[in-house]
Structure formats: C-alpha cells, structure tokens
C-alpha cells in the first residue's frame, strides 16, 4: 500500500478583490513526481507560497506524512519536512557551494547556540558530519568539484543544482521545485530531468511547478492543472493532455 506524503484540501487565498486560489487540493504519494501546471496567473506560485509558509491561507487543511501541519511560517514548514527552491535563484552568493549546502543541513543540527559559542566536542563532531554530508550531496547533484567555488561563480544550471542540493540537505519529506528549468538551455534541461529522475528512484517525493509542459508531461506521475486559481484537471499526464478544459486554458477557445 502506497504512503501518502502530502494531502492538501480546500485551500483558498484572496488578495483584496482577487481570489487567487479557490478550493485547491492535491494528494501526493511517496516516491512520486507530481506536477502543478497552468497558464500564467493560474495560481501555481501562490499555492506554492501558501504550502511553504510564505502566505497564510484563508482556508484549507494540510497533512504531511499523515500528520497535520499549519503552513504559518517558513521555518515551521521546513521543520515539518518540506524544502523548496525558488523560480528566482536564492543562494548565498558570497558563500561557497559547500557552505550553502551546510546552511541547509544546519536545519537538522542539535548542538545549539551554546555548543557553537564554546566549540564543544559534540559541536565539532556535528560540524564535521555536516561537511561530509554536504560534500556527498554536491557529488549527488553533479557539482562536487565546485565545492570551494563561491555560488555566484557557478553557471546558471549549476546554481540550480546547488539549490536542489541545499534543499536535500534538510532531509525533507517533500521537495517543492518552483520552475527549476526556467532559463535553462536544452542540455541543462536534460541534465535536470536526469537528476529529478534519480531523486525519485531514491524514493524521495517531488512537487514540481514548471512552465515547460513537455518536461512535466515526460517526467511527472500525476499532474494537476490550475486556471484562474481553480483546479480544472487532475490525473496521469496522458489523460490531462487530452482534457478539453486544459486545451482551452492553454490555447484559447478558438483552437
């Protein structure tokens, strides 16, 4: 029997006179790559921001790995087990690739402030373990040789990989990727797809927002389509692609 990692239902969000989300829900099982797509302004990023604590929903229920959680703050969501990347890359530009991943790993540290101030043996041991794990994750995403390079010096595609490594460093139940292929060339997109495939094979779970419909349809196990903040289709990619509401949303009623 498959394990439910994320169950969200009845999510609504209004900004003044704009109803950005209306009764949105998704159900994601472990090891799945789940796509969330829709035309510009459909509400995809708003949903991501609600899910990850950047926006407070007006209504909705949230369960992660069978436990209720409230996405009221980013750090609480990270603690619950959701890590995300952003459409606009958000790395610590002057820190090395290794240091960026170590920052992500620190979300799971135990030594605390006193250990850090007094450099206790347990703190030093934990720091060494964090560095080892960060190196492993840089190798995993294919940029291990750049561990000591400042993040700003990496290529665009490698910065995207670094963001994913930092997200993985938190040992998340769910990785939420916001437009990871944005700005990538064809070669980088192929490499990204291979990396996401590998993450899935390692039994991790991914929620993916992506404008590249071809990438989504070739990669995702299930897809939800939003339009004007409402879900208009959900299912396996082959069925969603043939859905008349989806075709109209993307191409217009004249096609």
Report on this model:
- This is Lipopolysaccharide export system ATP-binding protein LptB.
- One of its GO terms (molecular function) is L-phenylalanine transmembrane transporter activity.
- Its EC number is 3.6.3.-.
- Keywords: ATP-binding, Cell membrane, Hydrolase, Membrane, Nucleotide-binding, Transport.
- The protein is of the alpha/beta class.
- The protein is globular.
- The longest helix has 20 residues, at 121-140.
- β9 and β10 form a beta hairpin.
- It has helices spanning 44-51, 74-80, 97-105, 112-118, 121-140, 156-168, 186-201, 213-219, 237-242, 244-251; strands at 4-15, 18-29, 33-37, 59-64, 67-68, 82-84, 174-178, 206-209, 222-227, 230-235.
Describe the sheet with the most strands: 6 strands, mixed
CATH-defined architecture of the domain at 4-81 and 172-251: 3-Layer(aba) Sandwich
| Spatial strand arrangement across the major sheet | 6-7-8-3-9-10
> What is the level 1 CATH name of the domain at 4-81 and 172-251?
Alpha Beta
For the CA atoms, what is the radius of gyration? 19 Å
> Which range does the strand content fall in?
15-25%
Distinct helical segment count: 10
Work out the number of β strands.
Answer: 10
Q: What gross morphology would you assign?
A: globular
Q: Would you identify the regions where 5 or more consecutive residues have pLDDT less than 50?
A: none
CATH topology of the domain at 4-81 and 172-251: Rossmann fold
Q: What helical percentage do the residues reach?
A: 25-40%
Mean pLDDT over the residues = 88
Helices and strands, in N-to-C order? Answer: EEEHEEHEHHHHEHEHEEHH
Supply the helix-strand structural class: alpha/beta
Distance between the first and last residues' Cα: 42 Å
Keywords: ATP-binding, Cell membrane, Hydrolase, Membrane, Nucleotide-binding, Transport
Protein name: Lipopolysaccharide export system ATP-binding protein LptB
Organism: Polaromonas vacuolata
EC number: 3.6.3.-
């Amino acid at each position: 029997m498959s394990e439910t990692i994320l169950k969200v239902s009845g999510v609504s969000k209004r900004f003044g006179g704009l109803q950005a989300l209306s009764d949105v829900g998704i159900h994601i099982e472990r090891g799945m790559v789940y796509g969330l797509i829709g035309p510009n302004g459909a509400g995809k990023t708003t949903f991501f921001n609600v899910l990850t604590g950047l926006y407070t929903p007006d209504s909705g229920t949230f369960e992660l790995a069978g436990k209720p959680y409230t996405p009221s703050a980013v750090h609480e969501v990270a603690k619950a087990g959701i890590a995300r990347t952003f459409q606009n890359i958000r790395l610590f530009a002057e820190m090395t690739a290794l240091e960026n991943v170590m920052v992500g790993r620190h979300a799971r540290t135990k030594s605390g402030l006193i250990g850090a101030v007094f450099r206790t043996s347990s703190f030093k041991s934990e720091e060494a373990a964090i560095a080892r794990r960060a190196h492993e994750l840089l190798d995993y995403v294919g940029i291990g040789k750049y561990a000591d390079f400042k993040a700003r010096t990496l290529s665009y595609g490698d910065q995207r990989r670094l963001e994913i490594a930092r997200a993985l460093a938190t040992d998340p139940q769910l990785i939420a990727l916001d437009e990871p292929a944005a700005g990538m060339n064809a070669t980088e997109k192929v490499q990204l797809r291979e990396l996401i495939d590998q993450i899935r094979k390692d039994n991790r779970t991914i929620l993916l927002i992506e404008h590249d419909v071809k990438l989504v349809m070739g990669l995702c196990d299930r897809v939800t389509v939003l339009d004007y903040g409402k879900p208009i289709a959900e299912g396996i990619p082959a069925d969603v692609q043939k859905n008349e509401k989806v075709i109209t949303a993307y191409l217009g009623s004249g096609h």
